[in-house]
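Response to reviewer comment R2.3. The reviewers asked that we include at least one raw input/output pair. We reproduce the pair for Sporulation related protein here without editing.
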Amino acid sequence: MKTLNIKISTFTVVCILFLTNLSFGQQGTVTINQDKDIDKLLAIKKEMNESEDTSDRYRIQIYSGNRSEAEKAQSTFKSLNIDLPSKLVYETPNYKIWVGNFRDRLEADRALKKVKTKFPTAFRFKPKKEKE
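Raw output as returned:
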């Protein structure tokens, strides 16, 4: 009886080791074949996006009021380490802090949700186009 148990145990251990080796034995490499012109196209697209007219984009206003408070609001915003540019703008009679430069409303709304944690009166808007 003991020899039967030893044989079964040995067989079980061998099977487990064999099956474990099979399950971890899958290795391979991935090769990506792409046209060299794709990198050129991506660079051109990036350049076009950077030079695009930004007047049709969305922004977030976090403050409107006097200059000293506007500067405080801007420094508070910068200390939050949210990766968005901020800009001090003067529109008679108030100084305003505008944040971001978003291509679409959804992108602006996502950022607005983060900004509202510290600036609850912040809102999304689309700046008026300047007359040339």
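The CA atoms of residues 116 and 122 lie 6 Å apart. Helices lie at 2-23, 37-51, 67-79, 105-115. Further pairs are available on request from the corresponding author.
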